[in-house]
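Friendly challenge for the regulars: who can give me the structure tokens for this chain first? No prize, just bragging rights.
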Amino acid sequence: EVQLVESGGGLVQAGGSLRLSCATSGFTFDDYVIGWFRQAPGKEREGLSCISRTDGSTYYAGSVKGRFAISNDNAKNTVFLQMNSLEPDDTANYYCAVAPAPMHTLRKPLGESEYDYWGQGTQVTVSS
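First reply, four minutes later:
Bragging rights claimed.
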């Protein structure tokens, strides 16, 4: 069974940092991409960043480029999202998801329709 479990969310002051983790299990894919998304109340889900399992290539949304960094620990089947210089507008529920395909085959690497399996999310709240 494919599973993705997010952790690391919480309450942080503006300007602070958090590191989110996405622990994965049950994968039988030859290659895949892990993406991080977020959804704030009343807003659409937004793709933030993604990383290839095989070559480590990454994509970032403009809204987080330079502030967030994605990385993976393949030995631990875990993907991280380091979030720095957090702002109140970063408040949202953060999700990880898997697209069971090579990065170069994804038409929209940060498009949620590319991703087939999702975690339950972890809440991030940034206070001003």
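The mean pLDDT is 96. Residues 37 and 47 are 4 Å apart (CA to CA). Your move, everyone else.
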